[in-house]
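Let us work through a complete example step by step.
Step 1: write down the sequence.
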Amino acid sequence: MNGLQQLARRIDAATPPQRDRAVDALRALAIAGVIGGHWLVTALVLGGSHHGTVLHDDSPLASLPALTPLSWIFQTLAVFFLVGGYSAARGYRGGYPIWLRKRLIRLARPVAALVAVWVPVTAGMCLAGVPAATVHTILFLVISPLWFLGVYAVLTALTPAAVWLARRFGAWAAAFPVAVVAVTDLVRFGLSGPAWVGWVNVAAGWLVPYLLGIAWALGSLRGRRAPALMLAGGAAATAALIAWAGYPASMVGVNGAHISNLNPPTLAVVSFGIAQCGLALLLRDRLAQLMRRPLAWAGIALVNLSAMTLFLWHQTAFITVSSAGLLAGRVPGLLTAPTGGLWVAERLAWLPVFAIMLSGLWLVFHRVESRRGDVRGTAARQADGATAPPRPARGNPPAGHHRSFPAA
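Step 2: predict the structure and record it as tokens.
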């Protein structure tokens, strides 16, 4: 504890007073939400087929609809994009090719490490005669987080145009992609259009919180009135879409469901994301106060230091623990079907084991992201990225910048 407290004090002392610690806290909470959500609503089930024993994925949300509110808590992608837009607007000061190259390299470096590990692992599974269905299930879980990075890379490339739009219209700039999503859903669901039209929403849907983050950075969301309206309006719109327009109540995909709110994004998940962004902005002051505590801030700083590592490897941690469980057969809460409340309690008991495995993977792979093996020194350097105070929406680009975690 003495060592942790000393490290916390070092990181706290190295952090400039103008750094917006609440932004880092929101990012860390979003990461925790995604990781915890995946671990809770993904089940690898051991079953049989004509090819032998296989693993397939299942979701407790399909068999236990009472757990649907969990998706409202752990589906935090909108906060990811909100903070990403904020960080991009703070960091962009011209020199677009160099700026974009640096950000994309920061995204690509941890992905390359993941690929370098899983290509030989996949080859080994195939050579060992692992059923193709099992290999497909495992690879799907491993690479599923990568869609986020593809969308994020596209939005990052569009940052100068998004900044112009936010300067011109403020937070109302987000209304343009909201309209695109609404029209797309109308074509898909109301006019029985082709399903592929929905993929327009992958960029348009996540551009909404990204633009809100940029507007926040430019000073368009000051005070509490606008965030409160976002929270109330987004929540009311989401409830109306679920109650009267037939959208699913779950904010994540559910196995066997006819419509997924997330794949591709629907108007319901976009309105829900607006509500989340409003709540995040309302919590900013409280988070800023909490982050004044050295120990709390040190934890947030370390998460932000290697957020991409945690994000990319959390499913590998889950799969590794589950694969080890194969040695014991149908391990309760690990390789059994999610059919009742007992399974939920069993799965909760496994969460610390997943976290320990992820910590081990972090120790091995965080160096790829931070470039240095010295966590303490790098964490202290991470703390020196300053965030300049917000400027008016129509002002010049901020002179300071917010050094963000690699994914942002």
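Step 3: interpret the result. The chain has one domain: 26-382.
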